[in-house]
Amino acid sequence: MLDIKDTKLKKILPFDGPSINEVKKYLDKYNDEYIVIKCGGSVLVEKDLFDIFIRDIVILNKLGLNPIIVHGGGKRINSKLSEFNIESNFINGLRVTDKNIIKIVKDVLIKFNKEIVDALKDQSCETRRITSEEYNILTVKPENDKLGFVGTPTHVKADVLKEIIKVNEVPVVAPLGLDENNETFNINADTVAGSIAKELKARRLMIISDVEGVLNNEKKLIPEINSQEAKELINQNIISGGMIPKINNCLDVASNGVKGVVIIDGRKNHSILFELLSDKGSGTLIRQ
Predict the structure, then answer these.
(1) How many CB atoms sit inside 10 A of residue 18's CB?
(2) Do residues 187 and 177 lie in contact, with contact meaning Cβ atoms separated by under 8 Å?
(3) What is the pTM of this model?
(4) How confident is the model at residue 116 (pLDDT cuts 50, 70, 90)?
(5) CA distance 77 to 81
(6) Strand order in the sheet with 224-225
(7) pLDDT at res. 2
(8) When comparing pLDDT for 65 and 43, which is higher?
(9) What whole-number distance in Å separates Cα of residue 141 and Cα of residue 143?
C-alpha cells in the first residue's frame, strides 16, 4: 500500500497533470507492478516533447512506481546514415543492416541512450544504462538472412532489470542485443519492449508514438479494443499500413501475461501521467 501525503503529492505532480485525488486512486493499482514504456518518434527528437517525457518518468519514479524505458532511434539513425550517403532499405518495416550500418546504428543508439540517462540524472532520478556494451539483457538470433544484423530476442535477463528496479533506479534499454558469438544486432524497439513486458508480466506496456491511438472510420479515437475488434478493424482496412505490425505486437503481448497494452500520443502534454493516473486515460488500451 503506497501512502503518499497530499502535501508531498502537490510537490511531485505538475499543475497541468492529473488531479491529486485521481492520482491517489490509481497509485495502489500500480504498486509493485512493472510499467514498460517504449518511446519513439518525434518525442525523442523534439526538445519540448522530450523534456515532458523525461519529467513524467521522473514523476513516476518519485511516486514509487517502476517504469522501464525502451527507446527507439530510427530518425537519428536515418540522419546519421544520410551524412555518410548511405541509403536505407527496409523489408516489412525493418532496416536491412549490413556490417557497416550496424556500427553506425550501435554508435547512434548508445550515444542516445546516454543522453536519456543524463537527462534523468539531471532531474535527480537514478538510472542505469542498458546497451549491448553495458548490462546487456538481450540475447538474439538473426531475424532472417536478408536483413543482416537485425535480431529477434530469444532471452531477456529479467533478473538484471529486477535488481536495478529494487534499488529505485530506472532502467533505460537500447534496442540492441548480442547473439551467441557476441555480435551486436539491432532490434525493433517495439519488439524489445514487448519481450521485456512479457518476461516481467508487466502491468502495462505503453507505446508512445506520433499517433493518437487507434482511430475508427470517422477518425475518432477508440479508447479500448480487444483482439477480436482489432482483427475486424484490420480486415476492414481501418487499421492499415505500419499500424498493423504495431497492433499485432500489442495483441501478442496482451495475450502473454501483460494486463494491458496502450498506444498513446507523446505529442500531448503529460500523456503518460493521464493514461496511468487519471479517469480519462489518453490513448487506446488493447486487451486480449
Answers:
(1) 22
(2) yes
(3) 0.94
(4) very high
(5) 6
(6) 127-130, 170-173, 66-71, 34-39, 204-209, 260-265, 283-286, 224-225
(7) 61
(8) 65
(9) 6
